[in-house]
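User: Show me a protein chain along with its predicted structure.
Assistant: Here is one chain, sequence first, then structure tokens.
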Amino acid sequence: MKKKKNKSKATILAIFIILALAAVAIYALISPNSVQFPNLPTSTTIQTATTQAAGATQKTTTTQAGNPTTTVSLPPQTSLVTLEIKSWGFNPDVITISKGSTATWTNLDSKTHTVTSSDNFDSEDIAAGKTWTYTFNKAGTFQYNDKYNPSMSAMVVITE
């Protein structure tokens, strides 16, 4: 009976060790890209980058210990946003997106509409069932409306 009890303890210990190693592996997969190592000088940060994006910048510096450190800076996340023109309004009527993002308006009404912001952008006519796309390359807040129905208005906020 004693041998069986020792085997059970050993099995439980082995399972515990396997679970602990799995937890460490999972943490390593989901942890942030910047990792501090305690045995290195305190001013050293090891940077890793798993992707390179258009517009990325790379900087290499030397630490106090004389080791090179490379930092990769990725541009702000851009997105593709879909908006609707329906029921004589813009939906959503306010959006916030990053500079470089692209917005596409789809006219779901039966009449022609426009997406017009004075001095910024103008879709011209968007017929029923058609779309218009615009990429926002500068930060700011842009009010827009339908030039045929000025009471139809909305706003796009572009962040850096």
